[in-house]
Amino acid sequence: MLVGHQPKEFLLAVEGLTVSFDGFKAVNDLSFYVEENEIRVIIGPNGAGKTTVLDLICGKTKATSGSIQFRGKELTKLKENQIVQAGVGRKFQTPSIYDDLTVFENLEISFPRGRTVFGSLTFTRDAVVRDRVHEVAEMIFLKDRLNMSAELLSHGQKQWLEIGMLLIQDPDLLMLDEPVAGMSVSERVKTAELLNRIIKDRSVLVIEHDMKFVEDIAHKVTVLHQGQILSEGTMEKVQNDPKVIEVYLGH
Amino acid sequence: MTNARFATRSELIGILVLAVFLVVILPLCLDVFRLNLVAKYLTYAFVALGLVICWGYGGILSLGQGVFFGLGGYCMAMFLKLEASSVENTKIQSTPGIPDFMDWNQITALPMFWKPFHSLTLTIIAVILVPGIFALIIGAAMFKRRVGGTYFAIITQAVAAILTILIVGQQGYTGGINGMTDLRTLKGWDIRPDHAKIVLYFFEVACLFGCIFIAQFIRHSKLGRILVAMRDKEDRVRFSGYSVANFKIFAFCVAAVFAAIGGAMFALNVGFMSPSFVGIVPSIEMVIYTAVGGRLSILGAVYGTLLVNFAKTSLSESFPELWLFGLGGLFIAVVLAFPNGLAGIWQDHVQPRIDRLLSSRKPKPAAGWTDNSVADGAPAE
Which domain holds residue B313? Predict the structure, then answer.
């Protein structure tokens, strides 16, 4: 058994994770480990349970059994906001931003200060906040859109904005659900560049279908199929795995 | 540019205009009877103001604000009733010194929960705390379990119905369906004559502005923006590290306390309190005031309340049967045609014209989002 000192080395250790919806096991006895500064991409056919895995880690869905250890903390027992405060950030599949607020305000809300009711009442927009918002806005190519209402952004810009909102949280583990879906070719290139820049100093868990994109960024790939791991390893290894070719890549 | 902590310049002008309207114009134009009517209408403006925070910004529709209006009103009325029930005033009763309705219901001693209302200080604390804590309990029970939207609205309706039944049923303790009538003095100062009505009117307006400033502060704080964000993408807020339930509870409690202050003002200005201001129908009417004024506008809530109530008084004086249809029609019209109410009409049609008029005289940099520096805290509207 490796369990003894294993969790200390990994940033995220998922062990025996199972969730069943009315008897249907969307994720079945899943175990995987993510190291510090690793970029892990999860691929797999539709319904493989990829998004459910992210939902389980960030607390949106409660696990039926199993454990998720993040820096030695058991995430399955924490509430969503506590998981975020522990250092896990999550981007949703469809751009999830606040349409009625400006780009600046969208980013500001994610700034990790004043997260309680009274903290947010007394929150002041000081130089630290402003500088950080400007810095992130520049990274996500929205520097000159700061005072624009977020609903007026294009689809790709909305995706960047949400990535920016996560960046400002400065999570140790960043989870991205299909970050380039629905983007134009030039936007994809820019996003890959953006992701390559922001993954320094943190671990990233990405769900993505675009194999070109996966090849560009992944350190390690996990292939999910019917809630279980079908294959795991480098992109090259996974691509040549006959099981993977049969259920996923072959199509 | 200034960092807007309370209000932007145009909001400040709006507040000033309202102040002039309420403090100067209305008292000069109306006789004491009509001014007292305005005072009565304005008690609902407190409720509408709370609904702007809770419903407009937070997206939490409460159809039970009458509950909090009633709790605040009853707290105040209990104090006034006790003062009016001095031993010498009630010496013809079989038990002197207790409110008349208790005597009629064969109650021989003042119940425990009435005792704190001998003190004005404790009464004022109760006006704030009783509805505040009640809202906290309802809010915690609902929002921690993620009950929201229509379900929450229905539950608040049920609470309004329950409280009405409770008040009517417990006649000996609450005055029943008649409510608490014959309120006379506040610390020995008669609240019934004309000059007292005028003083109370100004006191109420001052409290209303106090609440407006609190609402403005909330709106311009990060909490205000989080409420808007929550209304839009609740999950995103949750996964940005906020406890969504706590923010909803806060908004609901603020709305409850505002409503309660309004209720207390009602008891003072109108001189009685009854269960007919607690139930489902008044609660829904209060939502209509907010909708007509514009559920996103703090000042709109005040104008909406005044307008609907003026219409109600004048229409129900001449066509008593038609009023409810008028009210229903008004609500449908607002929802269908002007979802942002009077304030929306003002912002879309009147404000741009004023701006154009002003800018034609004083050239300004190009309009749009580029002319605001980020340092300016003003949210784009």
Answer: 9-372
pLDDT tens column, B253-301: 999 999 999 999 999 999 999 999 999 999 999 999 999 999 999 999 9
pLDDT in tens, A112-160: 999 999 999 999 999 999 999 999 999 999 999 999 999 999 988 999 9
Q: Which of B225, B255, B230 is nearest to B243 (CA)?
A: B230
Q: Tell me the chain B residues in contact with residue A87 when contact means C-beta distances shorter than 8 Å.
A: none
Restricting to B residues 167-196, those with a Cβ less than 8 Å away from any Cβ of A are none
CA separation for the pair B342, B161 (Å, rounded)? 30
List chain B residues with CB under 8 Å of A165: 236, 240
Whether the CB-CB separation of A117 and B223 falls below 8 Å is answered with yes
Total domains in chain B come to: 1
Whole-angstrom distance, CA of residue A37 vs CA of residue A201: 6
Q: Each residue of B27-67: pLDDT tens digit?
A: 999 999 999 999 999 999 999 999 999 999 999 999 999 99
Helices (H), A72-225: 80-86, 103-110, 117-121, 127-139, 155-169, 185-198, 211-217
Q: What is the largest CA-CA distance in chain A?
A: 58
Of A120, A125, A146, the CB nearest to B223: A120
- Contacts with A181 (C-beta within 8 Å, 6 or more apart), sequence order: A93, A209, A210
Q: Find the farthest-apart pair of alpha carbons in chain B and give their distance in angstroms, rounded.
A: 78
Q: Are A135 and A53 in contact (CB under 8 A)?
A: no
Three-state DSSP at A110 gives helix
Per the domain annotation, does B301 fall within a domain? yes
Residue B165 lies in a domain: yes
Inside any domain, residue B378: no
The DSSP H or E segment spanning B297 is none
Inter-chain residue contact B379 with A102, CB threshold 8 Å: yes
Burial class (CB in 10 A: 0-12, 13-18, 19+), A85: middle
Residue B142 has a CB neighbour count (10 Å cut-off) of: 20
pTM: 0.90
- CA-based nearest residue in chain B for residue A122: B221
Is B4 among the domain residues? Answer: no
Closest CA of chain A from B142, distance in Å: 17
Q: Considering only CB atoms, which residues of chain A are within 8 Å of chain B?
A: 58, 60, 79-81, 84-85, 89-90, 92, 96-102, 104-106, 108-110, 112, 114-117, 120-123, 125, 130, 133-134, 146-149, 162, 165, 169
B241–A169 C-beta distance less than 8 A: yes
Which residue in A has a C-alpha nearest to residue B247's C-alpha? Answer: A117
Residue spans of chain B under pLDDT 50: 1-3, 364-381
